[in-house]
Hints:
The chain is an all-alpha fold. The protein has a single domain (3-412), classed as MFS general substrate transporter like domains (Growth Hormone, Chain: A, Up-down Bundle). It has 18 helices and no strands. It has helices at residues 3-40, 46-77, 80-98, 104-107, 110-138, 146-174, 177-182, 187-203, 210-218, 225-232, 234-264, 270-297, 300-314, 318-322, 327-345, 348-351, 361-391, 398-412. α1 (3-40) packs parallel to α3 (80-98) and α11 runs antiparallel to α12 (270-297). The relative contact order is 0.16.
Amino acid sequence: MNPIRQHGRVLTASLVGTAVEFYDFYIYATAAALVIGPLFFPTESQAAQTLLSFMTFGLAFFARPVGAVAFGHFGDRIGRKSTLVASLMLMGGSTLLIAFLPTYAIAGWIAPALLCLLRFGQGFGLGGEWGGAALLAVENAPRGWEARFGSAPQLGAPLGFFFANGLFLLLGLGLSDADFAAWGWRVPFLASAVLVGVGLWVRLKIGETPSFREAMEKAPPPQVPISRLLRGHSPAVLAGIAGVVACFAIFYLATTFALSFATTALGYAKQEFLAVQLGANTFFALGILVAGYWADKTSVRRVLGTGAALTAVLGMVFGTGLGSGSLAVVFATLASSLFIMGLAYGPLGAWLPTLFPVSVRYTGISLAFNVGGIIGGALAPFAAAWLAGVGGTAYVGVFLTLAGAMTLAGVQFSPRGAEPGEA
């Protein structure tokens, strides 16, 4: 096949798959901020509803490392392509079934129990999704283009966010609050079936990565990849975990927490604030593109370290900007936050694979990415809500400063391993 056509197909498969993945996750994040609490956790306290809703949101993050180990096992033993198809089907199937769930008023405690089960399925599938998409891109990249190819799956994040928030915005404009709560929130979950079908169609048309094929020709795959990974590459796993914390912390504070806080404590209409977030999302994509080009011209470590340092600085002003009461200041806060996230997120697809050899690479980067997601993502909205209640809005950014410092330490102390394309 023509190399240009082959590269285009690989980049499209990486982009579309992660766009579907992040669309699925974002629609739940948005629903958690807007309707999940009242529908599935009836209680007199609005704060308790919000916390319970965010707990179901965080549940998927704890399922992700389990999925990382399971899908990583097969990704390192039988290949990237088949594993990617399976992870996308599980992720998409769980999301679709959420659309058909009964609420607490209809099914009682069974409703939140089923919701938690499907959230676990979402997280389990996502645990194997991102790592495979990143490897599909960087292990097929021409020499010197690893970071730009690695930014393709990262661009799936703002693309998925655009579709998710855009659809919620349209529903909010076209439906009354009563209709949205009654059935409108289910539409984005139903629509995911179309996106999953497109993702599967694209991925079934690609082959295995050259790096994996070469590695299998040199030596048989490990019987238990996670065992070999933890025995021989524990420092790399710890560095990788720390390296992804900052991007997760920024994103879920600038999206899930910000939406919940703005529509409750600040009194903004949900359509108005969704439009603000949609506009700020363009700066996220811009940050990823800048990071990919900059990292190929310098190094992924330098760009990721810069993003981490800026995250720590951002934490000093994020809470004050969000709680300013001025929509222009709020937009500037979110836009700058998501641009910085692009710098901390864009290089990950090229940086994490350098920490591990091909034989345990799928398991290694998936485990690091998803455990880091627990620290930076699952805890972020919950910690921010607690900090805001204890010390006011200005304290919200403390979590970002700590996350930035952790990622910077992970980058600085990470081992220097093989290039992504090397077997």
